[in-house]
Design a protein that fits this description.
- The protein has 676 residues and is mainly α.
- The termini are far apart.
- It is built from 29 helices and no strands.
- Helix 11 runs antiparallel to helix 12 and helix 16 runs antiparallel to helix 18.
- It folds into two domains: 330 residues, no CATH class; 271 residues, no CATH class.
- 40% of the residues are buried.
């Protein structure tokens, strides 16, 4: 009798349902761990809810205990949103050159859902935060009269509202977008939404508030990119294990950069928030910092082990399982670190707020400087960590690019390297030297800073050819994705690049930096905050770079202008700049009065005259760089004609002067007709 082999029936879940289950479990698990860690951290640090003393307003235990829970959930949703945007636009090996893949489209939809949750949580958290700050119950804080009156004036609430609006934009955009360019835009917007709440915090009044603000933003963005990328890998790539190696390799470069930024910004954040080194062990805030530091060390060790041991070989079933387990461990540690970060944001630091003698100095954040001298303005020092680090990093990467070219036998002009270092030295000097301190109390000195950043530094920077160097030094992405070189090439040919290098656009941006800034209340508003100051300085530099890049830049351009059009562009800029300077000199009112009238030092006896001096400086200093640009355009035009002449001579010597031969033949035919 024939024997039948018994068969077993095994239900196999569709890959999509398996992936969805894994995604849900990871998201819920990450959020729960972060929530528990934030609550435990608050209890351990002494920052948990405590009833207010009798007679003082109190929002109640419900607000006090639920606020960190909302923070952890919101941060988790933000990380998930950014992680899936990273997957769709950068990590997915199956993405096309212009549009996302099918898996990338699914990741975009998940990012949209996470952004929607993020938006709702931010709105709810804004009401809870307002109730906590005002010491009222939730119903009172949510009442239209209370919320509309106070919400925008409280920085912690205002930044949450901004984050909610940006998250809503990402939620809508991620649903409608399928292009890689669109994905990049929504990712950038999501990162801005993450950075917004970091601009308000405990360290604003502790001294070094500029340093604290920049580092808080850098820390939040780096942590979100790192954790979000790992969430995307674990929740979406792992079900398609055959591509996890490529995606993990791409993510590795981003993870390394995130680790470096996290480490550096964490050290600086501890410095600006702790009163003394001993506070690391004697205060609740310090103990949270120590715990986060230990977690960071463990995360770095885990990530290094994954990169060295697992990523080179993920073909077998066992290495993949090991990768999943180690990635789960890393996600768990990151969840705890995220919760502790939320607890830190709600725990008061130990550094004592700086007390100033006058309200004006409190607004400035530092004591009035002595009367300006050449030595104090030129050689003084006031660290602006953002532009200082940016300048140093730019010079380091430029040097690495030059060394890479020379290592393979390619030449690079020394003059371009010198121009690059001079350009960034000017930027660093203008933002970190004594001129930066005095520019906050004097319109005249501020105008020197403005003209230096906008008109002088860009001339040297665009003559250094950084884009050309990058295109020659950067290698194509080893995994075939959107590496730095691919992004740069894509950006050069994008519609955005074409738009911003259009002469009309450049002049509009240039005009906004003069008339739209100084002749409105915007100038005083931007001067009153460190974020506004950064935005204004960035605008000065970018507007100057755009003008110089199109007019005299040696790098490739989306649509190069003929030399006569470049002359007209610079001439138009000169005319607009001169007319603006005349308006400033003729004005009898103080420019930026909403700021400079409040922070007037004793030695500045006539602020209106100082404002008129700013117009004279704008006229006197501003005309010199534009004249230099006109001369450079003339030299470049002459050299271009000379190169064209030499090229024509070489062609004529090899192939003969065909145009002249055709012309002589034409004359001969005319003579023959005349003879007939």
């Amino acid at each position: 009798m024939a024997t039948q082999t018994p068969t077993t029936t095994r239900s196999v879940n569709p890959p999509d349902s398996v992936g969805s289950g894994i995604r849900v479990r990871i998201a819920v698990g990450f959020t729960l761990i972060a929530v528990v860690a934030s609550l435990v951290g608050l209890v351990a640090s002494g920052g948990s809810y405590e009833p207010a003393p009798n007679g003082l307003p109190d929002s109640g235990p419900f607000v006090g205990w639920l606020l960190p829970v909302l923070g952890a959930i919101g941060f988790g949703a933000a990380m998930a949103c950014i992680g899936w945007l990273l997957l769709a636009g950068f990590l997915d090996p199956s993405a096309g050159k212009k549009v996302v893949s099918k898996r990338g489209r699914a990741a975009m939809l998940r990012a949209s859902g996470a952004a929607a949750i993020w938006c709702v949580i931010s709105l709810i958290a804004s009401v809870f935060t307002l109730a906590n700050i005002l010491g009222v119950d939730l119903a009172t804080a949510a009442a239209p009269g209370t919320f509309t009156t106070y919400a925008w004036d409280v920085s912690d609430v205002r930044t949450l509202l901004i984050s909610a609006v940006l998250a809503a934009a990402v939620a809508i955009g991620a649903v409608l977008s399928v292009s890689l360019t669109g994905t990049t835009i929504w990712l950038a917007l999501a990162l801005v939404a993450v950075a917004a709440p970091s601009t308000a915090g405990h360290a604003v009044g502790l001294g070094d508030h500029g340093l604290a603000l920049v580092n808080s933003v850098a820390h939040a963005v780096a942590a979100t990119l790192w954790v979000g990328g790992l969430i995307a890998l674990g929740a979406t790539v792992w079900p398609k294990a055959q591509t996890v190696g490529v995606a993990a390799q791409r993510f590795g470069y981003l993870a390394i950069a995130s680790v470096v930024i996290l480490t550096a910004s964490g050290v600086v954040n501890a410095y600006v928030r702790l009163g003394a080194p001993a506070d690391l062990f004697t205060s609740g805030y310090g103990r949270l910092v120590v715990a986060k530091t230990l977690l960071l060390i463990a995360l770095i060790a885990t990530a290094a082990w994954i990169r060295r041991r697992l990523l080179p070989n993920l073909d077998g079933e066992q290495p993949r399982r090991t990768f999943a387990k180690v990635a789960a461990l890393e996600l768990t540690l990151m969840s705890i670190a995220t919760g502790l970060g939320v607890a830190l944001s709600l725990t008061a630091p130990t550094r004592v707020a700086v007390q100033f003698a006058t309200q004006a100095e409190a607004l400035l954040g530092f004591e009035f400087p002595a009367a300006p001298t050449v030595m104090s303005v030129v050689f003084g020092w006031d660290l602006d960590v953002l532009f200082f680090v940016m300048g140093i990093a730019a010079c380091v990467y430029y040097t690495i690019g030059v060394m890479r070219l020379r290592s393979r036998g390619d030449a690079w002009p020394v003059s371009r390297t010198i121009c690059w270092f001079i350009g960034w030295s000017i930027v660093i000097w203008a933002t970190n030297a004594g001129i930066a301190t005095y520019s906050e109390v004097s319109v005249g000195i501020h105008m020197i800073q403005h003209m230096t950043i906008t008109m002088m530094a860009p001339i040297f920077l665009v003559l250094a050819g950084p884009v050309t160097l990058a295109l020659r030094a950067l290698k194509p992405s080893p995994s075939g994705g959107r590496g730095a070189r691919e992004l740069l090439t894509e950006g050069l040919h994008s519609r955005i690049a074409i738009f911003f290098t259009n002469p009309i656009t450049i002049l509009v941006i240039y005009i906004l930096g003069l008339y739209g800034l100084y002749l409105t209340n915007l100038f005083g508003s931007l001067m009153s905050s460190h974020i506004g100051h950064i935005a204004m300085t960035t605008h000065f530099l970018v507007s100057g770079l755009l003008l110089a890049y199109v007019a005299i830049g040696i790098d490739p351009k989306p649509r190069p202008l003929p030399y006569w059009a470049r002359m007209i562009l610079v001439l138009a800029a000169i005319i607009l700049h001169t007319f603006f300077a005349v308006v400033m000199m003729a004005s009898t009112t103080l420019i930026g009065a909403s700021w400079y009238s409040l922070v007037r030092p004793p030695w500045l006896t006539d602020p209106v005259r100082d404002s008129m001096l700013g117009g004279q400086i704008a006229w006197g200093i501003g005309e010199v760089p534009t004249l230099i640009m006109m001369i450079i355009i003339g030299v470049q035009w002459a050299r271009s004609d000379e190169r064209e002449s030499k090229r024509r001579d070489r062609f004529t010597g090899t192939h003969g002067d065909t145009e002249m031969d055709d012309y002589n033949a034409y004359l001969s035919k005319l003579n023959e007709r005349a003879d007939k």
